């Protein structure tokens, strides 16, 4: 699981090609056979998760479906949690491309406050679409969410936007953490159980939070 952190340069409103930032489980350069095995394993894991849910996703089941040994999966992904993080990778890469170089307001070209709102709403949509996987990844180990590559990238992206939107002296690092906090899968699981919160409710709450914090 790759949890490297990368500082982001100040953003420009001109969309320019740039490499994607680190994501969890981003693979290193691979041999052709290793890359082929990785694709087979992830395709099998995705099918099993879609059919049986994330709770039914076991290393033994994935190995059998992919036609590889259990040891191959452990060597490649470390454990079941690493496999879950890897399933989220492709979606994360696509998401990074959208907010770093896509169309506004999520991508460059809109006011910073509009981009913050679009970014948080897009994260809420991702969480809704991949809730079980994100919850499994987030709860795989204490602090897993905050050590992950995507969290570091999302946080740095928000800091860059907040630095443009807030007066000098604002602790934008703290504010970025505060804005990401409501998008914890475990928090939303609790809110669903206790209050029946929906994806629309989450977005409405984020808008309230933005009005209080950004005006």
UniProtKB/TrEMBL annotation:
Assigned keywords, A-Z: DNA-binding
Family annotation (InterPro entries): Homeodomain-like_sf, HTH-type_TetR-like_transc_reg, HTH_TetR
The keyword Nucleus is assigned to this record: no
Location of the DNA-binding region in this protein: 58-77
Domain HTH tetR-type: 35-95
SUPFAM superfamilies, per database record: Homeodomain-like
Keyword DNA-binding: yes
Superkingdom, natural source: Bacteria
Span list, region Disordered: 1-27
Protein name (database record): TetR/AcrR family transcriptional regulator
Lineage: Bacteria, Bacillati, Actinomycetota, Actinomycetes, Kitasatosporales
């Amino acid at each position: 699981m790759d949890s490297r952190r990368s500082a982001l340069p100040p953003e420009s409103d001109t969309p320019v090609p740039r490499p994607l930032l680190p994501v969890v489980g981003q693979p290193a350069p691979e041999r052709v056979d290793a890359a082929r095995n990785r694709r087979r394993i992830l395709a099998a894991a995705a099918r099993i998760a879609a059919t049986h849910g994330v709770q039914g996703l076991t290393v033994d089941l994935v190995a059998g479906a992919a036609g590889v040994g259990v040891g191959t999966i452990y060597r490649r992904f470390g454990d079941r949690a690493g496999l879950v993080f890897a399933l989220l990778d492709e979606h994360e890469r696509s998401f990074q491309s959208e907010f770093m170089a896509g169309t506004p307001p999520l991508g460059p070209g809109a006011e910073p406050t509009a981009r913050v709102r679009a970014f948080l709403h897009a994260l809420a949509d991702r969480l809704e679409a991949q809730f079980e996987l994100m919850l499994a990844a987030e709860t795989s180990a204490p602090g897993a969410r905050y050590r992950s590559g995507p969290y570091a990238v999302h946080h740095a992206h928000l800091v860059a936007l907040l630095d443009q939107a807030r007066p000098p002296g604002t602790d934008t690092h703290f504010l970025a953490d505060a804005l990401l906090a409501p998008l914890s899968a475990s928090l939303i699981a609790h809110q669903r159980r206790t209050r029946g919160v929906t994806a629309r409710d989450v977005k409405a709450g984020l808008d309230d939070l933005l009005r209080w914090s950004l005006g």
